[in-house]
Amino acid sequence: MRAIDADLGSSLRALIEKEAIEQTLLRYASSIDVKDWETLGNTFCADGAATLASGEVLRGRDVILDYIRTATAGRAWQHHLINVYHVDIDGDEASALTYHTSHQVAAEDPDRALVLVARYHDRLRREADGAWRISEKVLEVGWREERSRR
Q1: What pLDDT digit, counting tens, does each position of 41-88 carry?
Q2: Which of 10, 34, 98, 102 might form a disulfide with 80, Cβ 3.0–4.6 angstroms?
Q3: How far is it, in rounded angstroms, from Cα 142 to Cα 34?
Q4: Is 23 left (phi over 0), alpha (psi -120 to 50) or beta?
Q5: Which band of pLDDT confidence, cut at 50, 70 and 90, is reported for residue 4?
Q6: What is the pLDDT of residue 109?
Q7: What are the chain's domains?
Q8: Could you tell me where the beta strands, DSSP code E, fall in the chain?
Q9: What is residue 56's DSSP assignment?
């Protein structure tokens, strides 16, 4: 019976860790949508890296935040719909695959929306405070188009 209890405890801990990782990835998307830079910054490790729409590798939380802040400055509205497909945990490191569709409306042209269909490939690390943060994020765009309301 103790072996079953130990297995159950281990399985529950794994589910809790997976949920914490998924929450970090969901918080990344929702904080971009509302331009909550403090929360967005907290999803990344200080030494994190990201390869986003420009294809350039951005290194460091502040550099990543500056890039996103600049890239979204003209956006009046954004909506990231994400679904975390896989989370694989190995100790204090994890990898995740997230599918993503976003709609972005520019303030200067509210009748058109940019639509991106993409995947995020993430590496995460459990930090000293116990929080899971993104250590590396790579955006793989599959489709990009602009849609008109008319």
Answers
A1: 999 999 999 999 889 999 999 999 999 999 999 999 999 999 999 999
A2: 102
A3: 24
A4: alpha
A5: low
A6: 92
A7: 2-148 (3.10.450.50)
A8: 44-51, 57-59, 75-90, 93-106, 109-126, 132-148
A9: P
